Request: fold
Amino acid sequence: MPLSRKILLLALAAFFAAAAAAHARRQRGDGGSSLAAYYTPEYLAFKKRIMAEFTRDKAGRFSEFLKHVGKGKETSSEHKVLALTFDACGGRHSGYNEKLIEYLRREQIPATLFVTGIWIDKNREIFDGLARDPLFEIENHGLLHRLCSTEGRSKYGVYPTRDLGDVIDEMELGARKITQLTGRRPLFFRSATAYSDELSLKVARRIGMEVVSYDVLSGDAMRQSASRMNKNVLAGARHGAVVIMHFNHPEWPVLEALQLAVPELRRRGFTFGRLEDFTVKP
Ligand SMILES: [Zn+2]
Reply:
């Protein structure tokens, strides 16, 4: 092969490799930020130890419904507590629904907020304010918003972890970041898209967190209307049910849906609780 052609092929290969890496970073939404800063010798030793414990384990089922944390399902009980949970995903989805949070504060509605490390980086002051507010429980939505699969499975095109090591990074480094900033270690982890595999659940529990999915899909991520979301929430409301919504998309009608649902839920005797208030501790 002539030299010029070889150079051309090499240049093309380098171009495609760079393009693929850039695409992966965009998918991941971390803008290329390196994990190196998080890889202290202590952390790497910890990760190695945890990985060694699970080398023989299989990934198991891959689903968004591996386990429910909701304690009870009875509707007639005098205890009718609903857990409103709101995710902040980060990357291209790093907005902040300020009016929604103001509404929760005004109405004194306790809520659980699942945040990623990359959302925190883009919204540091807001995050500090939320973490200081006893109305809100801060939980772990992963460091980089990667879907936790120990074999690299994906859903809805969301960038997944490649392997067990990545899963530990996503869970543990997300938890450490929150702990460092708030002084409280998260008790719960929700994988991006809420999908994960059984091995990821075991790993989360091993490092002190319970994986949380949801019982009631509000429909905000499916761009449903406020009235449709209101119907979804009312239809799924049971004692102990976990409702999933987002607070990183001010353009989604989450506030409008809650303004419809909350008065009706209260009329039916529901109150609202944070996950740590009424679920089984890991
Ligand atoms: Zn998310």
Remarks:
- The longest helix spans residues 3-28.
- The pocket of zinc ion is lined by residues 87, 89, 141, 145, 192 (CB under 6 Å).
- The two ends are 62 Å apart (CA to CA).
- Residues 70-75 have pLDDT under 50 and may be disordered.
